[in-house]
Amino acid sequence: MNDLRTLSLTCVMLLLGCDSINEPDQVELFVPVDVLEWRTEGGGNLYFDVRRNTQGDFTIDVIQQGFRPVGVTVTLTREASLPVYDLVEQVFQGKINIAGLESPEYLPTGTWTHVYLVDRANQRHKVTSSHLRGELRALRYWVEDQISASSSTNFSNAPEPTN
Length: 163
Known about the structure:
The chain is α+β, with helices and mostly antiparallel strands. Helix content is 32%, strand content 28%. It has a 6-stranded antiparallel β-sheet with strand order 4-3-2-1-5-6.
């Protein structure tokens, strides 16, 4: 009977101990920024930069998609997509926590997205908040829709990227 109590007590202590190990430290970083850099590597390759323009909207320079140069610039306005605009606005004003725990990428295949914010002191910060990175997918989808709708995008005539 003592062995059963000892085993039960050990299991409870182990479970409580594991629970506290899995709780991430609270990490916070709120940074007003000038540039958002989106970099998707692997499948679904997409590079674009977001900057505020003189009208207060956001200019998005699409650099690369599908491992080919794109050279398309689109403007994100409040009228174009209010939810995406508001999210980007909050990021640029430094009102959203960009920090969190990042899981390492173990496999050499697949898709990895990295989002960087360049602050007003020209320091580059990696967005490690999985919540924010998930929300920013709406921006990626909006950009992809704009690329598809752009009549100036013609991948068959785009030059091959140089390494």
